[in-house]
Amino acid sequence: MRKLIYGMNLTLDGYIAAPGDDIGWSVPSDELFQFWSDQLQATDLSLYGRKLWQTMSSYWPTADQQPNATPAEIEFARRWRDMSKVVFSSTIDKVDWNTRLVTGDAVAEISRLKAEDGGPMDIGGATLAGAAMRAGLIDEYLLATAPVLVGGGTPFFTVLDSWVNLNLVETRTLPCGVILTRYETRR
């Protein structure tokens, strides 16, 4: 059975995007970028909601070809492009870069993928992760909390029908002031 990890950058007040889908506050430092690159390397399959997919796919497929790309960006772009991905959307009809589109029941498909043999899966996008969270499918939460307050926007956590008890697994502070916390779902 695969592990499902929900991890993203978020503000201290719990948002992954400020009003208007503004993520300008989340430009990662070199240390944070390397952390996410290492996470990507350890991931077997990435699950995306439409909005996050559109953000990622608008930049990373060719980021390694940009004249000012750093070695870390080149490495991340190649990893991202080559890894297996699944996009859940009923409004787009085409995906590229080693990606499969699912237009049906996301929770049923995520459950099916979790039951397969294989390495860890990550899930991104507030709506998709929220559906998986409400269904009890998230095994680990990985928060990269930035020292900024935005006052509103897209929350990292969704409204839940019942509590989810967690165990703290790791806490680390990066030089840029971002606090990394990792929690496992207590089953």
From TrEMBL:
It comes from the Bacteria. InterPro entries: DHFR-like_dom_sf (IPR024072), RibDG_C (IPR002734), Riboflavin_Biosynth_HTPR (IPR050765). SUPFAM superfamilies: Dihydrofolate reductase-like. Residues 2-180 form the Bacterial bifunctional deaminase-reductase C-terminal domain. PANTHER family: 2,5-DIAMINO-6-RIBOSYLAMINO-4(3H)-PYRIMIDINONE 5'-PHOSPHATE REDUCTASE, DIHYDROFOLATE REDUCTASE FAMILY PROTEIN (AFU_ORTHOLOGUE AFUA_8G06820). This is Dihydrofolate reductase family protein.
